[in-house]
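Input record, target 12 of the design panel.
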């Protein structure tokens, strides 16, 4: 094609015009020619991680386990964008929370709108529920998602600035059986992955319960004020419940003897919690009560829970969490008193656990056939054969860019293929294909037109033997 040729020519010309400094290659360090000053940008953003090919089997396994569980439970997938208007999060998560105060990736876009990368999933899902009038669907609406989230936190083990969550939200019903069913699903997810976990459950009740408890908590802390960081006290004076979530060892030690919220629940809130626990027993879900599980976000009410890897007890190690949030739909302009409950699990931490426990991942099946070719004409034919074989449902691999048979056979061996098909010059003339059994090295010439049937027969025979 003439156009192509022209493009190639002009690229060469412009490359030749570049200043000498840009062209030079530092051969001693084997570095590619990159314009000076730009190398420092050719690296990952702090706190972000690449998902490398060797980890793909873990990601696929976790995603598929999640997908299977959600599909068989008749939950529907909803993916919201990673970018939302900032008030979606400030309103839902709360102004006075770590996420909103310190951890959001927020910026003004070119249209002067204030937008943020989503730090969590619930706010976006509720926004979508309201915006798409999902209230008109049969309630509750059962949804799930799997995607990246962003928090500008200090990167450390188990904490990244971009991380993935598998989450679920059931919106449109306040019945306590839903809380229990979601907790049960979380338990089932970990059971299927063979990761032992403890699910810790609590209730933070309704607003009235929280006001009463907040007062009791402050009264308890009053005589100990001198032992508590002033900044912490000032910060949480309006949301004292969240003190239970603050990562400060001394404070937590003090709070071990503090009054517990379950003793301050209103009769309605208490009844909801009791029902959740009864349903958990009926569903045969084991759990632990932990009065400190308050989840640091404003939108929660009633049930809260967290998933801890068994044996580990540090807050940092939580694999996931969730709870009820009955006021959020209304806050976003939806119908009053729309009950809702959900969970979110950290995928990287789940994968770290799979690795730590040395759990075997289902591997991709090796190819049945490898297609090797010698020469341009043979390559053209091999491309056609490849498509034909894939259409017939065979698992086929190749490296058509390689010229030498030896390098192609090396790759075939590495892939543990069962048969290699070789198309060389002689085979081109005869319209045949050489079929090599990789186990015993025996080769046989087969008529090109009969190759599909021959392969089917041999693969069936192989299966029969096994
Ligand atoms: P949260 O709603 O903050 O409790 O998050 C739910 C789960 O997501 C946590 O239990 C973690 O497993 C995971 N998670 C939260 N933040 C991060 C992060 N910065 N890096 C990795 N995983 C995270």
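The sequence produced for target 12 reads:
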């Amino acid at each position: 094609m003439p156009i192509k040729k022209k493009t190639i020519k002009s690229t060469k010309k412009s490359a030749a015009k570049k200043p000498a400094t840009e062209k030079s290659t530092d051969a001693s360090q084997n570095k590619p020619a990159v314009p000076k000053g730009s190398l420092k940008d050719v690296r990952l953003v702090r706190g972000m991680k690449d998902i490398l090919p060797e980890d793909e089997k873990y990601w696929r396994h976790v995603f598929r386990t999640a997908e299977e569980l959600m599909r068989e439970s008749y939950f529907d997938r909803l993916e919201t964008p990673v970018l939302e208007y900032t008030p979606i999060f400030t309103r839902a998560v709360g102004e006075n929370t770590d996420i909103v105060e310190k951890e959001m990736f927020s910026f003004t876009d070119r249209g002067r709108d204030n937008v943020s990368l989503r730090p969590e999933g619930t706010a976006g899902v509720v926004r979508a529920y309201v915006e798409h009038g999902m209230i008109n669907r049969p309630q509750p609406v059962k949804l799930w998602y799997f995607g990246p989230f962003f928090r500008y936190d200090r990167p450390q083990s188990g904490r990244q600035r971009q991380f993935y969550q598998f989450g679920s939200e059931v919106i449109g019903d306040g019945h306590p059986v839903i809380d229990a069913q979601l907790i049960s699903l979380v338990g089932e997810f970990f059971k299927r992955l063979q990761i032992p976990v403890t699910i810790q459950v609590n209730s933070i009740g309704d607003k009235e319960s929280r006001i009463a408890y907040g007062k009791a908590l402050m009264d308890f802390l009053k005589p100990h004020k001198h032992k508590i960081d002033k900044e912490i006290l000032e910060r949480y004076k309006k949301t004292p419940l969240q003190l239970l979530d603050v990562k400060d060892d001394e404070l937590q030690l003090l709070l071990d003897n503090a009054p517990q919220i379950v003793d301050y629940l209103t009769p309605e809130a208490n009844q909801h919690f009791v029902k959740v626990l009864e349903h958990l027993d009926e569903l045969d879900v084991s759990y632990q009560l932990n009065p400190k599980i308050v989840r640091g976000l404003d939108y929660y009410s009633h049930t809260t829970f967290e998933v801890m890897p068994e044996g580990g007890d540090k807050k940092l190690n939580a694999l996931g969490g969730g709870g009820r949030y009955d006021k959020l739909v209304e806050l976003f302009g939806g119908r009053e008193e729309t009950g809702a409950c959900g969970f979110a699990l950290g995928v990287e931490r789940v994968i770290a656990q799979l690795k730590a426990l040395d759990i075997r991942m289902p591997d991709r099946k090796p190819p049945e056939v490898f297609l090797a070719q010698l020469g341009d004409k043979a390559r053209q034919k091999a491309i056609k054969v490849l498509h034909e074989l894939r259409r017939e449902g065979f698992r086929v691999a190749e490296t058509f860019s390689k010229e030498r048979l030896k390098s192609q056979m090396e790759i075939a061996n590495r892939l543990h293929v069962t048969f290699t098909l070789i198309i060389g010059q002689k085979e081109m003339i005869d319209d045949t294909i050489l079929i090599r059994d990789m186990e015993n090295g025996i080769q046989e010439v087969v008529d090109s037109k009969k190759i599909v049937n021959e392969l089917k027969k041999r693969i069936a025979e192989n299966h029969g033997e096994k």
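The first strand starts at residue 76 and ends at 77.
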